[in-house]
Design a protein that fits this description.
The complex is a heterodimer. The longest helix of chain A has 39 residues. By secondary structure, chain A is mainly α. Chain A has eleven helices and no strands. Chain A is extended, with a radius of gyration of 28 Å. Chain B is globular, with a radius of gyration of 19 Å. In chain B, 42% of the residues are buried. A six-stranded mixed beta sheet of chain B has the order 6-7-8-3-9-10, sandwiched between helices. Chain B has a four-stranded antiparallel beta sheet with strand order 2-1-4-5, with helices on one face. Chain B is an alpha/beta fold. Classes of the chains: A mainly alpha, B alpha/beta. Chains A and B meet through helix 1 of A and helix 5 of B.
């Protein structure tokens, strides 16, 4: 059995059973997974049907896309020309004529996003533990918290901003409030999913030592989820910077006001200059948060 | 013949494994003993290359395996199956699919990824489960099983790889004595019946002496003992386990091996 080594030396460590003995084993396995498999096939069918239906309903029309693609490129080419029809990059000073003002507005956008994310994350943190069936017995409490979070994230932040602008007037405050509410809803959901996937053994350990519910959450749950929470919050911050840059469209502060003005008045080179600034800014934040997240994952422990 | 020549592994400033050499003939049941942190796991993991050796050479029948990569490395890993202390099953998959992981190296991706395992592979997997008396659990999620059952699933996964060598890293350290015996008996049966080489890290000297043909003792990354179990004296055990020697040894080395010094200490 062990004589001579060949490239693919295989010792048959599993004598395959004769068919009459195998048949009941196969049948047993097939029987046990049949229900699961039927559900799976049904699920896939419903999903594909929904995709087809959605593209019909939303009039996703490939012909139209191809026919009109020229308009898109022509707008794009106008974006890359100055008023004197030179390419924008030939004269950066002229292109970024409003740099000082734009940077100030971009800074305001960042602050809106920062405070909005922080406030929203705080609410999400408080709410997420209350949504988990593994930590909270009362179905009513879970239901209420879940519905509130759902409401917060379903209404688009732009709509909240519009409402708050009417109530509190123009400026960054309505922007911050709109982002905070939307963030609380979105992050609350993500945080809750993280909490749903924790290992319950440490929680049991703390409970068995006489810890209150809050102590169980503080010492059994929080150390397990904190790194993930922070990672999601940073991701949300990045999304919110993008979000905050359009909140200005409805007068809720930041660079958006300037951008929508440039779009409406056909100041093409201004539009491209502002877009470039926003993109650069988001890229920088992305790089920053990425390093931060990696550090966090490596730092695990000591919380 | 599995040959380990001057193998070392350096992690930062520590030499986890320090210039280890051993020649292991086919079909031997080798126990690697020593306290935790002695480098036993690292040594086993270097053999199937889950850890890359810093220095030295590992070869099977003269064929160097320390430099293999890609398909050849995967083929090598198939031929030396690993069994872990924590079983390392995919908890969310059912038992049969976990066992079929052992067929991955035999199966093209277009078959394995959508889980279109051949009838032959399924038959092998079910036969392996039947060999270990757990064919009835085939459709269960692996994470729902007890520790002893999970380790038996892991052994099935190793078996269907049709390996030449089994590397077992503390296979029974998380199990109760009855399940430990079931798992060790299974390894012994595989060793005797199919002539597979078994390398097994063990904490318990008791188990090591019951099951192994040969013991390799490690301390601080170095081999300090390499002989038949009967040659393991109190003094060597103390060198291996330091202060813990009393606990590990109980009084089971037999009267002939009891050193007078420790007898007085116990009195």
């Amino acid at each position: 059995m062990t004589t001579g080594r060949t490239e693919a030396h295989v010792i048959h460590t599993v004598p395959v059973l004769p068919d009459p003995q195998l048949a009941p084993l196969f049948a047993g396995y097939a029987g046990a997974i049949a229900a699961k498999r039927r559900q799976m096939i049904l699920g896939v069918a419903v999903f594909l049907f929904a995709v087809a239906l959605a593209s019909l309903g939303a009039e996703v029309d490939a012909d139209k896309f191809i026919a009109k693609i020229g308009n898109f490129t022509s707008y794009f080419s106008r974006l890359t020309h100055l008023d004197n029809s030179a390419y924008v990059w030939t004269d950066p000073v002229e292109w970024f004529w409003g740099l000082k003002r734009w940077l100030r507005l971009l800074g305001e956008t960042l602050l809106i996003a920062y405070i909005g994310t922080f406030t929203g994350a705080l609410f999400a943190f408080c709410a997420c533990f209350l949504c988990s069936a593994r930590l909270v017995k009362s179905a009513t409490l879970r239901l209420v918290v879940r519905r509130v979070l759902e409401f917060c994230r379903t209404v688009p932040d732009l709509v909240f901003a519009l409402i708050f602008v009417v109530a509190f007037g123009l400026g960054p405050l309505p922007g911050v409030m709109a982002l905070a509410i939307h963030t609380a809803g979105a992050l609350g959901k993500l945080f809750a999913e993280v909490v749903d996937n924790i290992d319950l053994k440490p929680v049991e350990g703390v409970a068995a030592a006489g810890g209150s519910w809050f102590a169980q959450v503080r010492f059994g749950v929080v150390p397990q989820v904190l790194a993930n929470f922070t990672s999601y919050a940073l991701l949300r911050f990045e999304i919110n910077v993008r979000g905050a840059s359009v909140l200005g469209f409805v007068g809720a502060g930041g660079i958006g006001e300037e951008l929508i003005l440039a779009v409406r008045r056909f100041f093409y080179s201004d539009v491209s200059a502002i877009l470039v600034l926003i993109i650069l800014c988001v890229m920088l934040i992305d790089m920053g948060t990425e390093t931060l997240r990696h550090r966090l994952v490596r730092m695990e422990g000591g919380r | 013949m599995l040959t380990i020549e001057g193998v070392s592994k350096v992690f930062g400033a520590t030499r986890a494994v320090d210039n280890v050499s051993a020649a292991i003939p086919r079909g031997q049941f080798v126990g690697i003993i020593g306290r935790s942190g002695a480098g036993k796991s690292t040594l086993l993991r270097m053999i199937n290359r889950l850890v890359e050796p810093t220095e030295g050479r590992i070869s099977l029948d003269g064929r160097d395996v320390t430099r293999l990569d890609g398909r050849e490395l995967r083929e090598w890993r198939r031929s030396c199956a690993m069994i872990f202390q924590q079983f390392n099953l995919v908890g969310r998959l059912d038992v049969l699919n976990n066992v079929l992981m052992g067929r991955l190296a035999h199966t093209p991706a277009w078959r394995s990824f959508p889980r279109l395992w051949s009838h032959e592979d399924r038959a092998i997997a079910l036969s392996a489960l039947d060999q270990l008396d757990i064919a009835g659990l085939a459709a269960q999620r692996a994470e729902d099983l007890s520790g002893g059952q999970q380790q038996r699933v892991a052994i099935c996964r190793a078996l269907v790889q049709e390996p030449e060598i089994i590397l077992a890293d503390e296979p029974v350290a998380s199990l109760d004595p009855r399940n430990a015996k079931i798992v060790m008996d299974a390894l012994l049966r595989i060793n005797k019946h199919f002539g597979l080489t078994v390398l097994c890290n063990l904490h318990s000297l008791d188990l090591a002496r019951t099951y192994c043909d040969r013991l390799i003792g490690m301390a601080q990354g170095r081999v300090v003992f390499d002989d038949v179990p009967a040659a393991l004296t109190q003094e060597v055990a103390r060198q291996l386990y330091g202060m813990e020697a009393h606990e590990v040894l109980d009084a089971d080395l037999g009267p002939g091996l009891m050193a007078p010094e420790s007898a007085t200490a116990a009195a």
